[in-house]
Amino acid sequence: MISTNSTCEYCQIAGGYGKLLWETNHWNVYLAPSQRYLGTCVVALKRHCRDLSQVNNEEWIDFAQIVEKLEKSLTQTFQPTLYNWSCFKNSVFRDKNPNPEIHWHFIPRYHEPVHFEGISFPDPDFGYIPIPKKREIPVEVMEQLAIKIKDNIIKG
Predict the structure, then answer these.
(1) Between the CA of residue 74 and those of 39, 43, 108, 139, 146, what are the distances in Å?
(2) What CATH class is the domain 19-155?
């Protein structure tokens, strides 16, 4: 279950993570609303889970398959130079009643700018930790991006 009492700092959406692309038995995969790094997604555990040590073996196996499919999909779509995966829960502890939940940020990184639907996506911090600055793109472009990533996930 996804909490509705906090806002994910990276995604900027209260109680959610963006556009649902795909789901497995244990995880939901969302296209993040901020596309500063083209193809950024959030992978959220479907059940409330405070710490990584509470993720069970079945969920880890499922997550490993998601990692493989997402990385393969983005490689086919945009050929990123590398992928960053992060699991931060810092911002939730700014609230009086923190309710952390496990979710991963999947952040493709690009040495050179990539172009999609007539928009350039440079990676200004390449080689450094991604900076969580919001970059919205037009709804139509988000839709096309979601279709492209989903199609490659399905093709496997």
Answers:
(1) 7, 15, 8, 20, 11
(2) alpha beta
